Queue: 2 jobs
Job 1
Amino acid sequence: MLEFEDGNEANIIGKREVPLSRRAIERFARFRSPFNHPTVMFRKKAILALGGYERLDFLEDYLLWAKLIATGAVVTNCPDVLLLMRSGANLYGRRGGMKYFRNYCLLRRKLHSMGIINSFQVIIGDFAVLSSSLVPTYVRGLLYKKILHKG
């Protein structure tokens, strides 16, 4: 997934790369959502068997992907860029604040109960998201552009 900013699709600011193999997807899922949600295709029957989406503001997709992984579903990613997505201050703003932090902590505990992460990874992940949630939006944007999405 390529990201652009300022309403200008030629202004590519980053690329969100996701892992390709099952094992790499499992490792990546310990700390971040392993799929680019807008490009995901799945069998409806498999999702319904898991109970569908569970309410967890901002993080429903990540939780759903974790459930699939935990149940041993066949998952993979495509190496091709399938989406050009608008990014910017609104996106980075939604990824901060105490509500986002609380929900992320709830997600981390669910990942732990599913056996996806261990107790140490819960603590490390909580600390990382707390740090990111407390900084101003423009700093969070820099973190995404320069580190998480390879700007």
Job 2
Amino acid sequence: MSQIAAGPGGPAAASWLLQVMACRLHPAWGILAAGRLNFTRPIARSATEPERAAVIAVWRAALTAGLPTGALAGAGWFAHLDLDDAVWLPLARASAEHTPPHTPGTAAERAAAHPGSRDAVLLTARLVARPANVWDPPTVLPHARSLFRAAAAALTDPAYTDAVTQLREALINAGEVDIARIPAATD
């Protein structure tokens, strides 16, 4: 991955490779993309455990390779795969800290289902704070608002407070001033 990213157009090529991996393993996209991406996928099926393990290994290697900015954007497509959330969340958060992902709305939607996860809250805060383009906020903000409400209501762990605060600040900076107030605890 480092050699790909170091070549001409390297960050985009590395990102594209990650995106192709996601398309190859998604049951519906594999069939649709097979002709465009020049690989065969005769039947729609879920990724096998060895295929998921290979994607995770490549993703972890890419995260530790010191790749240039932009090289991990394609990892955003992994939000569409049936990877275990306990594995996906920390990897998605680390990728988003490096490079805003492709399909941030899907990542935010998936993260919003985990209000008790510090990684989910930090991932969503990053997606709100660093959109890759002007089209991202409308796809991310509804999920960020939902996650913020749920995370703030479940706020019990002091180590988790910093993550909720980061999401709150990201929402405020995105113009979501009213929604970003931490709700008062109800007795």
